[in-house]
């Protein structure tokens, strides 16, 4: 009798209680009625969120996927370059394949399709990257630094460093590209030194003309 009471007490102690599992987040979202239909809820989407409001002045972002449905890409021309704010800004990321040397990625962004060709974009990036390679020349940097140390920085008063010359050449090149190629199709390359050459930004206007003083 003593053994039976002990076994009954052990049985009560080993009794397990199972509870229904909590629902997963995806269980609370109804699937679409059609595979080709957009989700009615933007619970997981930061690009298509209904609560997200487009800023009046756009800014570039890292690539997270295709542009949202309310983007201005492919829209009809309105506005003027230099007068109105751009509708979108395309970010060209850095290319770190060659190390820490400042270079931009030559991958053609689909957002620019219909404005310029991939060949024109690749030529633009190649021209910019070549100037950046020349600007960071180790030989010229050694000469400029040696003269600065030898003359107690007095050489900077009468000489312009190779890097400064190349930055001026790069700025002239970007202005030339904007005037001859990008501005006429509603695009505008921003000066990348303002963002420390972390990326290259191309403003996306929906206009094929611009003021003569721009």
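^ Assign residues to that structure.
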């Amino acid at each position: 009798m003593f053994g039976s009471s002990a076994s009954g007490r052990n049985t009560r102690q080993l009794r397990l209680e199972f509870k229904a599992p909590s629902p997963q987040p995806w269980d609370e979202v109804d699937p679409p009625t059609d595979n080709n239909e957009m989700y009615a809820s933007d619970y997981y989407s930061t690009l298509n969120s209904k609560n997200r409001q487009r800023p009046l002045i756009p800014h570039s972002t890292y690539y997270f996927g295709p542009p949202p449905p309310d983007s201005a890409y492919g829209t009809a021309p309105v506005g003027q370059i230099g007068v109105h704010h751009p509708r979108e800004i395309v970010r060209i990321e850095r290319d770190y394949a060659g190390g820490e040397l400042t270079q931009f990625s030559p991958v053609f962004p689909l957002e620019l399709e219909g404005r310029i060709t991939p060949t024109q974009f690749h030529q633009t990036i190649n021209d910019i990257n070549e100037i950046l390679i020349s600007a960071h020349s180790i030989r010229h940097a050694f000469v400029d630094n040696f003269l600065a140390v030898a003359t107690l920085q007095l050489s900077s008063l009468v000489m312009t460093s190779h890097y400064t010359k190349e930055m001026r050449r790069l700025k002239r090149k970007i202005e030339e590209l904007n005037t001859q190629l990008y501005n006429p199709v509603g695009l505008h390359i921003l000066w990348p030194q303002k963002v420390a050459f972390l990326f290259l930004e191309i403003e996306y206007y929906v206009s094929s003309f611009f003021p003569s003083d721009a």
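The beta strands are 88-93, 187-189, 199-204.
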